Amino acid sequence: MKKITIAAAVAAIAIAATAYASPYYALRQIKTALAERDAEALAGHVDFPALRASVKAQLEASMARSIEATAGSGNPLAALGQSIASAMLGKMVDTMVSPAGVVALVNKSAVSPQAGAEGNADAPADGAQKKARYSAGYAGANTFIVRAQDGSRQDGALVLQRHGVWGWKLSSIEIASAMAGR
After folding, report:
1. DSSP assignment, residue 140?
2. 27, 79, 139, 153: most buried by Cβ count inside 10 Å?
3. In this predicted model, what pLDDT tens digit does every residue of 150-173 receive, in sequence order?
């Protein structure tokens, strides 16, 4: 009886540890797919409907702030322009948030594994590469966030949502420029 209890406790600890470490493993797989620019491998780790909704909402909010700042809130043409732009934005986001588009979007964002690579305009003149800093952690039982950081300024984030016990999928990318306007 004692052996069964110990075996059950060890099994429960092993299951809990692997469930806790699962987003880190998913991030490693995403990073590998991005580094290899493998859109098919990345597509298995992305929740495209949720990602499209997230990117569209961020771009619409940014566009609304821009129109408000430029034209003011009382301008009827601004509202018309915003509705036309919103319709076009939906088609653009559907095209952009595809496997190949996500590879390009993440590689261009601040949460890119290539951040600080040679050829970057921000790279130091002596050829030394600036190492990107990240913070990663749970924001709830089913949400895991990876943030790129540059000093005290936060540049962007990848948000993963739990799918099953061990599965995680990219469901949102907080775009740095969208975050700056918040």
Report:
1. E
2. 27
3. 655 566 788 999 998 889 999 998
Whole-model pTM?
0.69
Structure-block tokens of residue 179: 């975050």
Beta bridge partners of 159: 145, 172
Please give the Cα distance from 52 to 39 (Å, whole number): 16
For the chain, give the mean pLDDT: 77
How many Å apart are CA 165 and CA 153, to the nearest integer?
33
Distance CA(50)–CA(20), nearest Å, equals: 23
Beta strands in the chain (DSSP E): 133-140, 143-150, 153-163, 167-174
Give the Cα separation of 129 and 127 in Å (integer). Answer: 6
Whether the CB-CB separation of 161 and 16 falls below 8 Å is answered with: no
Residue 162: burial class (beta carbons within 10 Å; 0-12, 13-18, 19+)? buried
Contacts of 95 (CB under 8 A, 6+ apart): 101
Q: What are phi and psi of 20, to 5 degrees?
A: -65, -40
Residue 166 sits at φ, ψ, to 5 deg, of -110, -10
